[in-house]
Structures are given as structure tokens and as C-alpha cells.
Amino acid sequence: MKTTRLSLFSLLAVVAGLTLSSCNNQEQMKEPKATVAPRAIIHTNYGDMTVEFWPDVAPRTVDNFLKLSRENFYNGTAFHRILKGFMIQGGCPNSKVGSRGQPGTGGPGYMVKAEFNNRPHVRGVLSMARSQDVDSAGSQFFICHGNASFLNNKYTAFGMLIGGDDVLNKIANVPCVGMEGSTPTERVEITSVEIVGEVSKAAK
């Protein structure tokens, strides 16, 4: 699997790219049907974070995250990249215990077309990681720990943290090592992603 490096288009050179894999399967996600988006609780060994979604500006991306969550794709993955004051990144299947791949280079085997929008990247915003190809997002996502306006209209923001800011802060403060200083010294695992508040078609 060919590995590429995300360019954050930062005004500051200190921020390296959110790395992930360019998947061999180039098939794009199909247009999702209009739905009422539920919320999601990201359960971690550091506590829970609750997010609400923005299907009005990023319907494909929201649909994809919900699909992967329902399939338990994120269970056992970890926040493998942490930059305090910037963001925490997770959702890579290669971050699971026993995986042979490099964390930060994996995906679901397909890519999701970008849905850049006018929602600003501020603290608590949920957004998709990608490679230099704007349509290369898959499963990896990040949650902003600080304002990151240089990402606006360059990455797909698709939700917002509405609960668990203290957990976000705990994770962002995990000691990190490595050349970028972003590899956590403690495992921050996503034990599961619970979908809540789904509305059935009959109830609509």
C-alpha cells in the first residue's frame, strides 16, 4: 500500500502532515440518502467524547463515519498522533494491537470525495485526515484541540464535540515522542463508537 503524507498547508512549518495511505481501491463513496444524523459517543480508555454531525455541509463524510462506526471499524483503534494545541488524530486500522501496518497509513479500502465547507476548524471540530489528494479521505479523522484556521476549506469539517472537552484535553496532554513529537507514550484506545439518537424512516 503506497503511503503518502498529508500537507496541512500550515502557515507554520512546524506542523507535519496527517499521514495516511493512498488506498488501492479508488472507488468513491456513493451519494448518501438524506437522513437525520444521530450523534456519536467515542468511548476511549481516557473517557467519552460526544460529537454531533453536520450532514448539511458534509453528507457523504457523515454517512461514511456512521457506516464505519456501525460496522465496529473503529473499535480497538487508537489516537496514534497527538499534537497538543492542534489536534488528536485517530481512525487508522493499523493502530489496532497486533496490526502489521504502520499507524497513520491505513484506511477502509476506499476514498471519500472531499466536502470542503465554511465551518471553521476551531477547538472541538471533527474533520477528516487525507493525503495531498483532496479526495483521499477514508477512515482517519482528527479532533481539533485548538484553533486551526489554516485548515479551513482544505479539510472536510463534519462535526463538533458537544461533550467530553475534558477528555479531549486529557488526550492532548499525553506525553509524546518522535521526530514530530506526536507519537503518544501511552496508548489512547478507542474502545468503541456508540451511535445514539438515530431516527427510523417510519418515525420521520
Strand segment tally: 13
CATH T-level topology: Cyclophilin
Tell me roughly what share of residues is in helical segments: under 10%
- Biggest β-sheet, characterized? 9 strands, antiparallel
* Mean pLDDT over the residues: 86
Count of helix runs: 2
Would you tell me the structural class of the helices and strands? mainly beta
- At the first level of CATH, what is the class? Mainly Beta
How do the SSEs run, as a string of H and E?
A: EEEEHEEEEEEHEEE
The CATH homology group name: Cyclophilin-like
Count structural domains. Answer: 1
Describe this structure in words.
- With 204 residues, this protein is mainly beta.
- It has a single domain (19-29, 43-198), classed as Cyclophilin (Beta Barrel), CATH 2.40.100.10.
- The protein has 2 helices and 13 strands; from the N terminus they run E-E-E-E-H-E-E-E-E-E-E-H-E-E-E.
- It has helices at 59-70, 165-172, and strands at residues 3-4, 20-21, 39-44, 47-53, 77-78, 81-83, 87-90, 125-128, 141-144, 157-163, 176-177, 183-184, 189-196.
- It has a 9-stranded antiparallel sheet with strand order 5-13-3-4-10-8-9-7-6. It has a two-stranded antiparallel ribbon with strand order 1-2.
- A hairpin with a 3-residue loop joins strand 6 and strand 7.
- The longest helix is centred in the first third of the chain and has 12 residues, at 59-70.
- It is globular, with a radius of gyration of 16 Å.
- It starts with a strand and ends in an 8-residue tail after the last strand.
- Mean pLDDT is 86; it is low at 1-17 and 19-29.
